[in-house]
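Students often ask what a holo structure prediction actually looks like on paper. The answer is less mysterious than it sounds. You provide the chain, you provide the ligand, and the output is a string of discrete structure tokens encoding the 3D arrangement of the protein together with fe (iii) ion.
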Amino acid sequence: MRVLGIETSCDETGVAVYDTERGLLSQALFSQIDMHAVYGGVVPELASRDHVRRLLPLLRQVLSDAGIGARELDGVAYTAGPGLAGALLVGAGVARALAYGWGVPALPVHHMEGHLLAPLLEDDAPEFPFVALLVSGGHSLLLEARALGEYVPLGESVDDAAGEAFDKAAKMMGLGYPGGPAISRLAEQGRAGRFRFPRPMTDRPGLDMSFSGLKTFTLNTIHDLGGATALNDQDRADVALAFQEAVVDTLVIKCRRAMQATGAKRLVVAGGVSANGMLRERLARAMGKLGVKVYYPGLAYCTDNGAMIAYAGALRLAAGERQEGLGVSVRARWPLSELGRVPVR
Ligand code: ATP
Ligand code: MG
Ligand code: FE
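The corresponding structure tokens follow.
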């Protein structure tokens, strides 16, 4: 079965073709980062308009790269939420229309299920059940993935997402958007021990997280150094390192607890922050001690992409799912736990 995947939930237009026998056939991505960078964050209306501009050219490109015609597709999957409503509607409208025109099923996909399943695109794919840490620009979730569609929440951020904290801290230091890659690069030059940031919500039991306090702590640290404009390169690198260590240690502590609480031996880490090198290193050490194997997406599939949506759609299509009716609707908010187990046919 061959499924086209369309991702337009935020600021990347992603399109891909996944074949259940041959794997990922092709994928293309256009990131709007440069367009939004001047505003210091994503401008929803500009995002929607740019998806309109990019989608069909990317679609032609992936079909041509895959060496197939539209008639050889068995389904069209698209991100139906959560995300920016206007941006989602572009992908949903195009996907629904294409599926209708080609006479194949349309498959609404939950964006976070896409992230969650991205590590399954790798050669060494984890099997269900597993524990997952999803850390992205809008979410920080710990959950137990029992089967396709059956995701039991274990914990989540009570305020900012981990990626959001990276973005906001970076903005305070005058670094570009997105902040994660910028902070992680800068932290390599940082000197350990100069600043000590808190590890929020690790002094009490539980799997919930909080990252907004680290934002305030960053602001205060910068203030004590005389403000953002007074920072030299070494100051910035030292703050970046201390901030990153605090986020990473907090995530590692929560993962350790989740593995101990569930007794699971497989941990999947996905979403944009899963690209972070220090997170991967420290998790490897901590999980190694527990005999837990950690699975990640390839670096290109940590942040938003069409491949994860094509893949999630293909699994659902293979299980007999499809969208009923011709309506086009999206959900800006959509808890992952509302999905139900997909019966295997
Ligand atoms: P969501 O998936 O919750 O809707 P999103 O789609 O915007 O949000 P992703 O595309 O998964 O999020 O990830 C983007 C986030 O990942 C940004 O916040 C970015 O700063 C962060 N990020 C990317 N690379 C890194 C990195 N190397 N280290 C830390 N954070 C990173
Ligand atoms: Mg993005
Ligand atoms: Fe995402």
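The longest strand covers residues 23-31.
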